[in-house]
Amino acid sequence: MSHSVLLETRKMGVSFGGVHAVKEVDFVLNEGELRCLIGPNGAGKSTFFKMLSGQVSPTRGQCLYRNQVISGRKPWEIARLGIGIKTQVPSVFEGLTVWQNLWQAAANKLASSAIDEAILEVLGDIDLLHLKDAVLSELAHGQRQWVELGMILISRPQLVLLDEPAAGMTHHEVRKTAELIKTINQQSTVVVVEHDMEFISMIAQKVTVFNQGEVLAEGTFAEVTSNQLVKEAYLGNMEIKHA
Q: Where do transmembrane segments lie in this chain (predicted)?
Protein backbone atom coordinates (compact mmCIF):
# COMPACT_ATOMS: atom_id res chain seq x y z
CA MET A 1 0.00 0.00 0.00
CA SER A 2 1.08 3.57 -0.61
CA HIS A 3 1.29 5.96 2.29
CA SER A 4 -0.79 8.86 0.99
CA VAL A 5 -3.32 10.52 3.27
CA LEU A 6 -6.58 8.55 3.31
CA LEU A 7 -8.57 10.27 6.06
CA GLU A 8 -8.06 13.65 7.68
CA THR A 9 -9.89 15.87 10.14
CA ARG A 10 -9.33 19.61 10.24
CA LYS A 11 -10.24 21.37 13.48
CA MET A 12 -13.14 18.92 13.82
CA GLY A 13 -15.19 18.97 16.99
CA VAL A 14 -18.65 18.72 18.45
CA SER A 15 -20.50 20.30 21.34
CA PHE A 16 -23.56 19.05 23.18
CA GLY A 17 -25.48 21.71 25.09
CA GLY A 18 -22.44 23.95 25.32
CA VAL A 19 -20.12 21.15 26.44
CA HIS A 20 -17.17 20.54 24.10
CA ALA A 21 -17.21 16.73 23.83
CA VAL A 22 -14.51 16.92 21.18
CA LYS A 23 -12.50 20.10 20.69
CA GLU A 24 -10.82 21.14 17.43
CA VAL A 25 -8.99 17.94 16.48
CA ASP A 26 -6.49 17.68 13.63
CA PHE A 27 -5.99 14.02 12.73
CA VAL A 28 -4.22 12.40 9.77
CA LEU A 29 -4.54 8.73 8.79
CA ASN A 30 -2.36 7.36 6.01
CA GLU A 31 -3.23 4.49 3.71
CA GLY A 32 -2.21 1.13 5.13
CA GLU A 33 -2.20 2.20 8.77
CA LEU A 34 -3.64 0.33 11.72
CA ARG A 35 -4.46 3.15 14.12
CA CYS A 36 -5.77 2.70 17.66
CA LEU A 37 -7.69 5.37 19.57
CA ILE A 38 -7.51 5.16 23.36
CA GLY A 39 -8.21 7.31 26.40
CA PRO A 40 -10.17 7.45 29.66
CA ASN A 41 -13.97 7.41 29.80
CA GLY A 42 -15.33 10.73 28.57
CA ALA A 43 -12.08 11.58 26.78
CA GLY A 44 -13.84 12.05 23.45
CA LYS A 45 -12.44 9.06 21.55
CA SER A 46 -15.81 7.36 21.03
CA THR A 47 -17.49 10.61 19.98
CA PHE A 48 -14.61 11.28 17.59
CA PHE A 49 -15.09 7.78 16.13
CA LYS A 50 -18.82 8.47 15.73
CA MET A 51 -18.02 11.60 13.75
CA LEU A 52 -15.73 9.60 11.46
CA SER A 53 -18.45 6.99 10.90
CA GLY A 54 -21.36 9.41 10.46
CA GLN A 55 -23.18 8.59 13.69
CA VAL A 56 -22.57 12.12 15.00
CA SER A 57 -22.31 15.30 12.92
CA PRO A 58 -19.53 17.70 13.90
CA THR A 59 -20.52 21.22 14.89
CA ARG A 60 -17.23 22.64 13.63
CA GLY A 61 -14.40 21.64 11.33
CA GLN A 62 -14.31 18.98 8.65
CA CYS A 63 -13.60 15.31 8.01
CA LEU A 64 -12.16 14.43 4.61
CA TYR A 65 -11.85 11.01 2.99
CA ARG A 66 -9.60 11.02 -0.07
CA ASN A 67 -9.84 14.83 -0.04
CA GLN A 68 -13.65 14.65 -0.17
CA VAL A 69 -15.61 16.21 2.68
CA ILE A 70 -17.68 13.52 4.41
CA SER A 71 -18.50 15.19 7.72
CA GLY A 72 -22.24 15.37 8.27
CA ARG A 73 -23.04 12.43 6.00
CA LYS A 74 -25.07 9.47 7.22
CA PRO A 75 -23.32 6.13 7.98
CA TRP A 76 -24.82 4.46 4.89
CA GLU A 77 -23.54 7.29 2.69
CA ILE A 78 -20.07 6.93 4.18
CA ALA A 79 -20.17 3.14 3.75
CA ARG A 80 -20.87 3.63 0.04
CA LEU A 81 -17.50 5.35 -0.32
CA GLY A 82 -15.70 2.12 0.56
CA ILE A 83 -15.66 2.46 4.34
CA GLY A 84 -16.65 -0.50 6.53
CA ILE A 85 -18.13 0.39 9.92
CA LYS A 86 -18.58 -1.84 12.97
CA THR A 87 -20.29 -0.14 15.91
CA GLN A 88 -20.95 -1.49 19.41
CA VAL A 89 -24.54 -2.24 18.35
CA PRO A 90 -24.64 -5.67 16.62
CA SER A 91 -25.90 -5.65 13.04
CA VAL A 92 -26.16 -9.41 12.51
CA PHE A 93 -29.29 -11.48 11.93
CA GLU A 94 -29.51 -13.89 14.86
CA GLY A 95 -32.05 -16.20 13.18
CA LEU A 96 -30.01 -16.70 10.01
CA THR A 97 -26.99 -18.89 9.35
CA VAL A 98 -23.45 -17.60 8.99
CA TRP A 99 -23.70 -18.03 5.21
CA GLN A 100 -27.05 -16.23 5.05
CA ASN A 101 -25.71 -13.30 7.07
CA LEU A 102 -22.78 -12.91 4.71
CA TRP A 103 -25.11 -13.24 1.73
CA GLN A 104 -27.32 -10.44 3.08
CA ALA A 105 -24.26 -8.22 3.46
CA ALA A 106 -23.11 -8.99 -0.09
CA ALA A 107 -26.48 -8.75 -1.84
CA ASN A 108 -26.48 -4.98 -2.38
CA LYS A 109 -22.74 -4.63 -2.93
CA LEU A 110 -21.66 -7.41 -5.30
CA ALA A 111 -22.88 -8.93 -8.55
CA SER A 112 -24.94 -12.05 -7.82
CA SER A 113 -22.48 -14.18 -9.79
CA ALA A 114 -19.64 -13.10 -7.48
CA ILE A 115 -21.36 -13.56 -4.13
CA ASP A 116 -20.66 -17.24 -3.45
CA GLU A 117 -16.96 -16.91 -4.19
CA ALA A 118 -16.72 -13.77 -2.05
CA ILE A 119 -18.44 -15.51 0.87
CA LEU A 120 -16.08 -18.48 0.68
CA GLU A 121 -13.10 -16.13 0.69
CA VAL A 122 -14.38 -14.21 3.71
CA LEU A 123 -15.21 -17.43 5.58
CA GLY A 124 -11.56 -18.37 5.12
CA ASP A 125 -10.45 -14.97 6.41
CA ILE A 126 -12.55 -15.25 9.58
CA ASP A 127 -11.87 -19.00 9.96
CA LEU A 128 -15.55 -19.96 10.12
CA LEU A 129 -15.96 -22.12 7.02
CA HIS A 130 -16.73 -25.10 9.26
CA LEU A 131 -19.64 -23.14 10.77
CA LYS A 132 -21.12 -21.73 7.55
CA ASP A 133 -24.48 -23.47 8.15
CA ALA A 134 -24.68 -22.65 11.88
CA VAL A 135 -27.39 -20.25 13.05
CA LEU A 136 -25.95 -17.08 14.59
CA SER A 137 -27.84 -17.49 17.85
CA GLU A 138 -26.03 -20.80 18.42
CA LEU A 139 -22.56 -19.30 18.18
CA ALA A 140 -20.26 -17.99 20.90
CA HIS A 141 -20.01 -14.22 21.37
CA GLY A 142 -16.62 -14.02 19.67
CA GLN A 143 -17.80 -16.03 16.68
CA ARG A 144 -20.77 -13.70 16.17
CA GLN A 145 -18.37 -10.75 16.26
CA TRP A 146 -16.23 -12.41 13.59
CA VAL A 147 -19.29 -12.92 11.40
CA GLU A 148 -20.02 -9.21 11.70
CA LEU A 149 -16.44 -8.46 10.68
CA GLY A 150 -16.94 -10.79 7.73
CA MET A 151 -20.06 -8.85 6.73
CA ILE A 152 -17.94 -5.71 6.61
CA LEU A 153 -15.12 -7.40 4.68
CA ILE A 154 -17.38 -8.88 2.00
CA SER A 155 -17.11 -5.70 -0.10
CA ARG A 156 -13.37 -5.32 0.57
CA PRO A 157 -13.54 -1.76 1.97
CA GLN A 158 -10.51 0.50 1.75
CA LEU A 159 -11.04 1.74 5.30
CA VAL A 160 -12.43 -0.24 8.26
CA LEU A 161 -13.67 1.54 11.42
CA LEU A 162 -14.06 -0.72 14.48
CA ASP A 163 -15.60 0.34 17.80
CA GLU A 164 -14.42 -1.91 20.67
CA PRO A 165 -14.20 -5.11 18.58
CA ALA A 166 -12.85 -7.15 21.53
CA ALA A 167 -15.51 -6.15 24.08
CA GLY A 168 -16.89 -9.06 26.10
CA MET A 169 -14.56 -11.64 24.60
CA THR A 170 -12.61 -14.43 26.28
CA HIS A 171 -8.82 -14.21 26.26
CA HIS A 172 -8.67 -16.75 23.43
CA GLU A 173 -11.23 -14.80 21.40
CA VAL A 174 -9.33 -11.56 21.99
CA ARG A 175 -6.12 -13.08 20.64
CA LYS A 176 -7.90 -14.48 17.60
CA THR A 177 -9.60 -11.13 16.97
CA ALA A 178 -6.21 -9.41 17.11
CA GLU A 179 -4.86 -11.78 14.46
CA LEU A 180 -7.96 -11.23 12.33
CA ILE A 181 -7.60 -7.45 12.49
CA LYS A 182 -3.95 -7.71 11.47
CA THR A 183 -5.05 -9.86 8.53
CA ILE A 184 -7.67 -7.26 7.58
CA ASN A 185 -4.95 -4.60 7.72
CA GLN A 186 -3.04 -6.38 4.96
CA GLN A 187 -5.75 -5.18 2.57
CA SER A 188 -7.48 -2.30 4.35
CA THR A 189 -6.57 0.70 6.47
CA VAL A 190 -7.99 0.18 9.97
CA VAL A 191 -9.04 2.44 12.87
CA VAL A 192 -9.85 0.77 16.20
CA VAL A 193 -11.37 2.36 19.31
CA GLU A 194 -10.61 0.16 22.32
CA HIS A 195 -9.99 0.35 26.07
CA ASP A 196 -8.38 -3.10 26.50
CA MET A 197 -4.70 -2.19 26.61
CA GLU A 198 -3.51 -5.78 26.28
CA PHE A 199 -5.52 -6.06 23.06
CA ILE A 200 -4.09 -2.73 21.87
CA SER A 201 -0.58 -4.05 22.50
CA MET A 202 -1.32 -6.99 20.18
CA ILE A 203 -2.34 -4.89 17.19
CA ALA A 204 -1.14 -1.30 17.53
CA GLN A 205 1.15 0.29 14.99
CA LYS A 206 0.33 3.86 15.94
CA VAL A 207 -1.79 5.02 18.88
CA THR A 208 -3.69 8.29 19.33
CA VAL A 209 -4.52 9.13 22.95
CA PHE A 210 -7.54 11.32 23.69
CA ASN A 211 -8.11 13.25 26.91
CA GLN A 212 -10.67 15.96 27.71
CA GLY A 213 -11.84 16.16 24.11
CA GLU A 214 -8.47 16.59 22.45
CA VAL A 215 -5.41 14.61 21.36
CA LEU A 216 -3.02 14.26 24.28
CA ALA A 217 -0.33 12.16 22.60
CA GLU A 218 0.39 10.13 19.50
CA GLY A 219 3.03 7.54 18.69
CA THR A 220 3.90 3.87 18.92
CA PHE A 221 2.45 1.74 21.71
CA ALA A 222 5.76 1.90 23.59
CA GLU A 223 5.96 5.68 23.18
CA VAL A 224 2.47 6.46 24.44
CA THR A 225 2.55 4.00 27.34
CA SER A 226 5.80 5.51 28.58
CA ASN A 227 4.54 9.10 28.14
CA GLN A 228 4.20 10.76 31.54
CA LEU A 229 1.15 12.81 30.51
CA VAL A 230 -0.62 9.66 29.31
CA LYS A 231 0.24 7.88 32.56
CA GLU A 232 -1.19 10.73 34.62
CA ALA A 233 -4.36 11.13 32.56
CA TYR A 234 -5.17 7.53 31.74
CA LEU A 235 -2.85 4.68 32.60
CA GLY A 236 -2.00 5.50 36.21
CA ASN A 237 -0.44 2.42 37.78
CA MET A 238 -1.97 0.09 35.20
CA GLU A 239 0.32 -2.84 34.44
CA ILE A 240 0.96 -2.79 30.71
CA LYS A 241 1.70 -6.11 29.05
CA HIS A 242 3.51 -5.88 25.75
CA ALA A 243 2.39 -8.60 23.33
A: none
pLDDT score, position 237? 67
Give the CATH number of the domain where residue 210 resides.
3.40.50.300
CB 176 within 8 A of CB 143: no
The candidate with the shortest Cα–Cα distance to 25, out of 215, 211, 235, is 215
What pLDDT does residue 88 have?
83
Domain membership of residue 212 (yes or no) is yes
pTM score, two decimals?
A: 0.92
Number of Cβ atoms within 10 Å of the Cβ of 28: 13
- Neighbour tally for 74: CB within 10 Å: 12
Boundary residue ending a domain (156, 182, 201): 156
Domain range holding 139?
A: 92-156
Q: How far is CA 142 from CA 5, 152, 226, 228, in A?
A: 32, 16, 31, 34
Q: Residue 131 contacts by C-beta under 8 Å, 6 or more apart in sequence? A: 98, 139, 143
